[in-house]
Design goal:
Layout: H1 5-15, H2 20-36, H3 45-56, H4 61-72, E1 80-87, E2 93-100, H5 103-115, E3 120-121, E4 131-140, H6 144-153, E5 160-164, E6 167-172, H7 177-185, E7 194-201, H8 209-223, E8 228-233
Antiparallel strand pairs: 1-2, 1-3, 2-8, 4-6, 4-7, 5-6
Helix pairs in contact: 2-3, 2-4, 5-8
Length: about 240
């Protein structure tokens, strides 16, 4: 299926000493979600999604509570949600989602991360049409057939169900994120190996060894930027 969800998450975690950078990104995202609606996940679906994602990365409770309390306290810190689209070598495409309190700084840093690593920034819409917004839920302890059956019984629409290593991965429309989780919770599955809202490419490209090395350097540079929350791409990365 292209992306190896568990490997991707483990690689991101290994990059950041003590997960501090990932925790900081989640803190910002939780704060923004909490400010956009009620600071209660049961009344704020966007916040609930972020908290479910944070749980799979073991984000400490203290960081979550601090971000929510900051939102409750009426902080005047504002962030803009931005999306950048660009290109790497040989048909590779990249989407970058950011939260920033300084649009000019972020635009400059993202452009530089592309340009210094053999890529270039495109215009809005130049890449996103080749990706599908997707809810990705992963669980252990079930087979793909068992998961498909329980989702059908719960009348939940999904795009795909498949096994990856010891995890069953479900692809669904983003608005089915909570429905998929509730179907699992109703049969006693409350822990999720993967819980993401992401962008899945409609087609993957394979790069030469040299181009892949350049591409990975570009992706690392983008992910290292403080304002960048998520980076999506269409490259089938070889180990």
């Amino acid at each position: 299926m292209g992306r190896k969800w568990n490997n991707i998450k483990d690689k991101k975690a290994a990059k950041d000493a003590n997960m501090s950078r990932i925790y900081a990104k989640f803190g910002r995202e939780i704060y923004v979600a909490a400010r956009q609606g009620e600071p209660d996940p049961e009344a704020n679906r966007a916040l609930k999604v972020v908290l479910e994602r944070a749980k799979t990365y073991n984000v400490p409770k203290a960081i979550i509570e601090r971000a929510i309390e900051k939102a409750k306290g009426g902080s005047d810190e504002n962030y803009d949600e931005l999306r950048y689209e660009g290109f790497g070598p040989n048909g590779s495409m990249v989407i970058v989602d950011a939260l920033t309190n300084n649009v000019n700084r972020t635009a400059s840093e993202v452009r530089a991360a592309f340009g210094k690593n053999g890529g270039n920034l495109g215009v809005s819409g130049s890449v996103a049409y080749m990706f599908d917004a997707t809810a990705v839920i992963g669980v252990e302890g079930k087979t793909a057939d068992e998961v498909l059956e329980l989702l059908l019984e719960a009348d939940v629409d999904v795009r795909d169900v498949f096994e990856e290593d010891d995890t069953v991965i479900v692809y669904a429309d983003p608005d089915q994120f909570h429905a998929v989780q509730e179907a699992f919770k109703n049969v006693g599955i409350t822990e999720f190996k993967v819980a993401e809202l992401t962008m899945i490419p409609q087609n993957y490209v394979t790069l030469s060894e040299e181009d892949q090395a350049k591409f990975e350097k570009m992706i690392d540079a983008l992910e290292d930027l403080e304002d960048v929350q998520q980076v999506y791409h269409n490259v089938d990365l070889r180990e």
